[in-house]
Specification:
5 helices
């Protein structure tokens, strides 16, 4: 009889180690879906390598990821609501004016062909002229 009690204590300690390694298991207890005793019995029956533990862990991670995405989206929406659209419009107009000015300066340089010295027209590498 004492061996059975020692064996049960060892199983309980192993279950505690398992729960520490997989904290998502306790979410069912916290939500009231299952008791800790039920989880312990499932752990004893199926073992810690059963797929149900890993499927639940994946589901918990997906739920957390979905919550993060929802938080990011709500953060973006609140940032958009706080924007001053008149300032944004004014900034866009200033940027557009700067781009237009740069285009004007570039077009002035492009339209004027450079005056090349006459000796460049000949294909001679020496800039001599004959009289």
């Amino acid at each position: 009889m004492p061996d059975a009690k020692v064996n049960n204590n060892q199983k309980v300690q192993e279950f505690k180690t398992f729960v520490r390694a997989h904290p998502h298991v306790l979410k069912k207890v916290k939500s009231g879906d299952k008791t800790l005793q039920e989880l312990f019995e499932e752990w004893v029956l199926f073992g810690e390598d059963d797929e149900t533990w890993f499927n639940e862990e994946k589901k918990a991670q997906e739920d957390e990821h979905a919550d993060d995405s929802g938080n990011k989206l709500s953060g973006m929406l609140s940032a958009i609501k706080q924007m001053n659209f008149e300032e944004v419009q004014r900034g866009i107009e200033q940027f557009s004016g700067a781009v237009y000015s740069i285009q004007e300066v570039l077009s002035q340089f492009r339209s004027k062909p450079k005056h090349q010295p006459p000796y460049m027209d000949s294909h001679s590498p020496f800039p001599f002229r004959h009289d």
